[in-house]
Amino acid sequence: MFYREAGDFKTSYQDDNQTFPIKFDRYRYYFVLFVAFAIIPFIINDYWANAVFLPFLIYAIAAIGLNILTGYCGQVSLGTGGFMAVGGYAIYKFMTAFPDVNVFFHVILAGLVTAFVGVLFGLPSLRIKGFYLAVATLAAQFFLVWLFNRVPWFYNYSASGQITAPERTVFSNPVTGANSEPWMVYLFCLVFLVMLTLVARNLTRGALGRSWMAIRDMDIAAEIIGVNPLKAKLTAFAVSSFYVGVAGALYFSVYLGAAETEAFGITKSFNILFMIIIGGLGSIFGSFAGAAFLVLLPVVLKNVLVAWLGWPTDLAAHLEFLIVGGLIITFLILEPHGLAQLWRVTKEKLRLWPFPY
Amino acid sequence: MKKTLLSLAIASAALGAPVSAELVYPSLSYRTGPFAVGGIPFADGYADYFTLINERDGGIGGEMAKVLECETAYNTEKGVECYEATKDSGSLLYQPLSTGITYQLIPKAEADGIPILSSGYGRTSAKNGKVFRHTFNFPVNYWDGASIGINHFKEQAGGSLEGKKVTLLHFNGAYGKEPIRTLQELSKMEGFEFNTIPIDYPGQEQKSQWLQIRRERPDYILFWGWGVMNQVAVQEASNIRFPMENFMGIWWSGAEQDVLPAGDGANGYKSLQFQGVGSDYPLYDDMKKYVVDAGKAAGDGSNVGSVIYNRGLYAAFLAHQITLDAQEMNGTSSVTPAMMRDAMEQFTLTAADYEAAGLGGFGPDIKVSCENHGGLGTAAITQWDASAQKWSLITDYMPSNYDLINKLVMEDSMQYAAENNITPNCD
Amino acid sequence: MPEQLVFAMEVFLNGLMAGVLYALVALGFVLIYKASGIFNYAQGVMALFSAMTLVGIMEGQIPFSHLINAILGTSVHHFGWHLPAALAILVTMGVMVLLAWLVQVVIFRHLVNQEPIILFMATIGLAYFLEGLGDLMWGSDIKKLDVGLPQGINLWIDETTFNIFDYGFFIDNLDIVATIIAAILVGILVAFSQYTKQGRAMRAVADDHQAALSVGVSLSFIWVMVWSVAGFVALVAGIMWGAKSGVQFSLSLIALKALPVLMLGGFTSIPGAIVGGLIIGVGEKLFEFAIGPIIGGATENWFAYVLALVFLVFRPQGLFGDKIIERV
Question: Whole-angstrom Cα distance, residue A296 to residue A189?
């Protein structure tokens, strides 16, 4: 009844091409943006920022990045942690070398550096396919982590090898370092997320996105009709690594504040891969859903089990694993294509509501 | 979005609980994950000590002590989450038991005004209290430990290490790389050849490293490991028949679970310590009576008196003494984190204090000041007796090469101050 | 003989033994992938779970004791018995078969014909679930595994090589035992798949599910069987590694070591897993020995992957893997 296209006529090409053609979708989108920008900064506190929103925003960016590579272009990559490390160490070097430049630009520069590294490690994808490529990207993961541990230049020769983000401000409000306000860091990451999501949505809707999906679906056929696999795969790696690099830069500078290479280990790569698989491959909404699922669920479980029921912390931690695993399996049996597919099915049903067919 | 709102509702109910008049000591423990083998006894010791104080003394200065445990699994993200979750519940003092999490929390605790005590781990240069106003690492730190270890080997070698070969076998992370600078300086000063052999996480496969040791035949090995790599290292050392009395671990690599699996082969393995071993102290009789036999022990009571358990107990003991000082200084029993910090900056502990608490000889003397948040930097050495299956102290608390350590601390802390625009001060 | 060459020989032999242990872990992956096309991310956790169950049964631990104590307020921990190793291994094997059956019935029966990535995701869920279950049942502290395997340097080899080369080689007894056991295991597996009816049925299922169904092979029975065999392989791997370093969480990370072996050898070949394991084991140890000291050590983590990557560039399906045939 509400969610319908009947009566909604487009009168210009611009209207026809817009991202959300259905009015209800558009209003929902504006409402979410409104809540995110205008309401949450006023009610957010340290705990919510650091335990819930910041990880969600940052992992959402990384998940979109990996989704572009794995979901849209079909190249399975397990090197996400290593690329986040590139982003983190790159922004550290930029921040300490050019302290006067605004950290906003540093984040983007860190993303560009990661894009370049990503293209380098994406070269094997021209020859290797499928699960073999996944395991090849693990080479990137372990090598990069080893590199940042080994070469003292990356951590400015400090005695312990840890990097700490110095305080930087945006519009005279500190964004990195311990004096940053929760609403400021939240808004900083949110701005990046919204910008990058818009770019990703439009890239995947456009010619580049179609070439990625062609490679994913049937790469030999795609090559025959004229899609250049080299260009498609390497641009996928580049764009994806840019996103992951931005996520890594934000992860280190805004969220954690200090990091060592363990923070970017193999578990991170697997976590982000799980997010996009649970959320739904090849879908921007899926990246959000998966990130929300894997960030929020442990926190909710912990709060319910430990704070409410008062169980010992190690029992709660074990049960967390059990429940997360069980939920993953249940979701997969119910809906193998992820939460995004559930969402699509819900929307389909809503278009017909209240009629059953 | 839906999940956010739901959890908003649940969590705000949980977090909105009123803070009762208690002294809160958060315990960022790791009872799961790769380092649980060390995390579990520490958390048990920490919790049991406060249970004892509550049961036996009715709390600290009349206020009951509450230990808020939060599981981090040695993961920095969860450490941050635990910190944020517990800091508003009246937390007085953080002891994160993880170098990685400590690095995270140093700037945050500075901004929130809650002190951190990272005894024998964490950021070593936090010893410079003028730069790190809220971070303390008394009684000893890694650079002290490296220096004391070298001194002991020097003594063992007859007074000089000239021409000898010393290897640092270490965890390839921040924790393991801490002593390298110090050892490099010491090698120049003492004339020994120094090299490092890193072990990657998790360190359960160390064949290459020990084959290398077997080829190179160093005279002495210093070992900085944590978790399962400890016991694998000791096992491999005994496999290649390395003379165990020349193999010394830092205080995180010298617990029972590290040496028991190697059986008799581990006999003679040494370790640095900064607290007592065993349960031969009057406090432990009280512990048995009030806590273990009363069924209130955090674990099943079997790890009371083990090395890492004692370390947790020592950490709680220090927190207890600091609280008593803070209560006395301010004439009130409900202390705040700021009071704790001030009390820590003037903290002293003598042999008489230990004796009065039923822990005579349990730890070194401590003297803290604004410039020196790291105490006197002394440690002792214990050795493992495989037939008796116990650790015993073989030296007294010995000092490190104070001038060298201070110089390195200054360098590192000033670099941090420069990077973060901090002016060293004492107010 | 020049000293470096002698050292290199010692490193080479140790590498072969390490490679055998990696191959042992990789075998579990290959078995399941061959029969059902599922890349079993949970193989490492299965090794951990089986080892924990073995220790728990041997020591007479009460399963779920921590949970029971927390809910009921009791303080029970052990039954009080100690089982001999051989009997405990049989019981653990029974548990793994039960687990295989449950996995088949609860998870994979509902996911027949889904894409590989979905099945992979299901095994990820299974890994989380098993890890939580294992910790909940037996506790997450470290446990000592003692099934009577010898450890320590093999003195005979030490003396003999000292007499020949003036330098005694270090070969661990445990590694020798592991190699022999792995060789026997591989022999049994190959014989099983070649010469028994069930083995042939397994190969038929690996070739083509539909065709196997049409000749009357029960898919679910074969899958339960395959998962049980993989469980048994995981148990053996868990015992070997658990005897070296105790049974705790990091045991599940040995699966990561098996991945480059699979890349190199191909996901679908048992001889490939063995050969791949040997190449990776020797390669990473020799690289660490020769180049490690120059670039700072701890190269083992990534060199195996780089080595496998180089092989893959020349042979994208691994040494022995099925050639990827794509149809337009």
Answer: 17
Contacts of B87 in chain A (CB under 8 A): 46
**Residue B59, pLDDT above cutoff 70:** yes
Residues B331 and B262 reside in one and the same domain: no
> What pLDDT, in 10s, does the model give residues B285-311?
988 888 888 888 887 778 888 899 999
Q: Residue B10 domain-assigned?
A: no
- The predicted structure's pLDDT at residue B233: 92
Distance in Å, alpha carbon of B30 to nearest chain C alpha carbon: 10
Domain ranges across chain A: 44-265
Best residue in B205, B235, B241 for a mutation probing chain C (most C CBs within 10 Å): B205
Q: Choose, out of B32, B208, B242, the residue to mutate when testing the contact with C (most C CBs < 10 Å).
A: B208
Residues B215 and B128 in one domain: no
Q: Is B223 helix (H, G, I), strand (E, B) or coil?
A: strand
Q: Same domain for B120 and B167? A: no
Identify the CATH number of the domain in which residue B92 sits: 3.40.50.2300
Residue C320: inside a domain: no
Which pLDDT tens digit goes with each residue over C46-90?
999 999 999 999 888 888 888 887 777 777 778 878 888 889 999
pTM of the predicted model as reported, rounded to 2 decimal places:
0.89
Residue B285 lies in a domain: yes
Question: Rounded distance, CA B161 to CA B222, Å?
Answer: 14
Distances (CA, A) of C182 to A220, B14, C15, C19, C319: 41, 53, 15, 11, 21
Instruction: With respect to residue B386, please indicate whether it lies within any of the assigned structural domains.
Output: no
Among the partner-chain residues C118, C129, C301, the one whose CB lies closest to the CB of A142 is C301
By residue range, what is the domain housing residue B367? 21-140+278-377+407-419
Cβ–Cβ of B84/A307 closer than 8 Å? no
Residue B404: count of CB within 10 angstroms of its CB = 15
Displacement of CA A188 from its chain's centroid (Å): 15
Q: Does C135 touch chain A (CB under 8 A)?
A: yes
Residues belonging to chain C with any Cβ–Cβ distance to chain B shorter than 8 Å: 7, 10-11, 14, 18, 75, 77, 135, 140-142, 144, 151-153, 170, 172, 241, 244-246, 248-251, 253-254, 257, 285, 288-289, 292-293, 296-298, 300-301
Claim to verify: residue B372 and residue B240 sit in the same structural domain: no
Q: Which residue in B200, B214, B261 is closest to C300 by CB distance?
A: B200
ipTM score: 0.85
Cα within 13 Å of Cα(B40), Cβ side: 24
